[in-house]
Amino acid sequence: TETEAWTAQRVKAVDKEYVIHSWSVQGALDPIPVAGGSGSWFWDYDGRKYLDFQSQLVNLNLGHQHPRLVEAIRAQAADLCYIGPGFAERSRAELAEMIAGLTPGDLKMSFFTTGGAAANENAVRLARHVTGRHKIVARYRSYHGATAGAMSLTGDPRRWAAEPGISGVVRMLDPYTYRCPAGHPDPCPVCSGGPHLEEILQYENPETVAAVIVEPVTGTNGLLYPPDGYLQSLREVCDRHGILLIFDEVMAGFGRTGEWFACNHWNVVPDILITAKGLNSGYVPLGAMTVSARISEWLKDNMFWGGMTYAGHPLACASGVASLRIMEDEGVVENSRAMGERLGAGLAALAERHPSIGDIRGRGLFYGVELVKHRGTREPLVPFNAKGAAAAPVSRLLKAAMERGVYLTANFNVLRLTPPLVINSGEIDLALGVLDEVLSLADDHYQG
Ligand code: PLP
Questions:
Q1: Among 168, 243, 247, 424, which is least packed by CB within 10 angstroms?
Q2: ipTM score of the complex?
Q3: HEC readout, the chain
Q4: Spacing, Cα 147 to ligand 1 middle (Å)
Q5: Ligand 1 test: best mutation among 23, 55, 143, most atoms within 8 Å of CB?
Q6: Which GO terms describe its cellular component (predicted)?
């Protein structure tokens, strides 16, 4: 009833009975009932605090309950909660203009969605219409979202449950230099990008390919940074064949890598940029598809075949405007870079003490730590797609971190270190201290 108090026990019990959680066997779950959060921390009903070293789903870049962001949502709610996408509305217009100003190159007009997957769906459909072609090249170590098209683009094993998916997706390999799929020393055709893409296009017929979609820095699937020249090389191949280049920066965009956009590290500009998550720190669901000046021109005379009830929702857009202002006013991108250097240095020091650390990859606050059984063979601490008992060496480590008040996650054998971009040096050091303790659990499996 409405008068019955929502105790931790009641939240848990009602959740267990009625809520379906993502990517889970429901009976196996035991979620922590969360009572609140502030900055880089959240806490349960007993007042137990956790340092959020994930930014939740790598979206809460400004941390929990940023006062200015909360206030902007409150103000927009008082003004106008909703108006249909067919009307011109201030927060939507302002956010689109700000994105055009912040994004690299000539990226200009934006279509707003409720998240990353929907933005990717629209990008694929638009690319097909603009080019009059149907195939899309995507990579294996990728995540693009859980809707039919986005899941078909996705390479990670969650795709298997959604197959056969949409047609026309062609797969290329990843520039995973630590585990180079071609087995070469760098630079190899795969890790340098263009030669591998060219070969695939040769077999597929480039005139049937509408777009190539990549995460410039792979997020969920292992924090993979491309070698210098890789994105440039993809750009050149796409241009040669009239293929559009789509960058999915849902996770890597808006300061995560210590630049406003990950592609800025290499000065490569896509035809379509997909963002979400850090665009407004996820306080209200929001995603965006931002297109080049050329596609913006094309849209003046051609139909845009896309729309949703909540395209450009005023509450979401107002939170986006506030979020970007906060990022500029508070030097959030600079903080991401500075705290990232501190985190990187701390991890390098940990690698000297913990043989299970095979590789450390990161810039800004977008770090992956690859755990191995042996540095020479690089055998992963747990295999690809490990679950249950097979994943235990990593899941035990994550649990031990949680017991010490630090929330961490992993993709199989790669720890993901992606704290809020507003984190401070004391909090970074605290997490490094806990990592130092729990990494010994990984070292126990070392076979050196
Ligand atoms: N693209 C990337 C790179 C992502 O990391 C994600 C989510 O993790 C998505 C797309 C999907 O976004 P959403 O969950 O908002 O649909």
A1: 424
A2: 0.99
A3: CCCCCCCHHHHHHHHHHHCCCCCCCHHHCCCCCEEEEEECEEEECCCCEEEECCHHHHCCCCCECCHHHHHHHHHHHHHCCCCCCCCCCHHHHHHHHHHHHHCCCCCCEEEEECCHHHHHHHHHHHHHHHHCCCEEEEECCCCCCCCHHHHHHCCCHHHHHHCCCCCCEEEECCCCHHHCCCCCCCCCCCCCCHHHHHHHHHHHCHHHEEEEEECCCECCCCCECCCCCHHHHHHHHHHHHCCEEEEECCCCCCCCCCCCCHHHHCCCCCCEEEECHHHCCCCCCCEEEEECHHHHHHHHHCCCCCCCCCCCCHHHHHHHHHHHHHHHHCCHHHHHHHHHHHHHHHHHHHHHHCCCEEEEEEECCEEEEEEECCCCCCCECCCCCCCHHHHHHHHHHHHHHHHCCEECEEECCEEEECCCCCCCHHHHHHHHHHHHHHHHHHHCCCCC
A4: 10
A5: 143
A6: cytosol
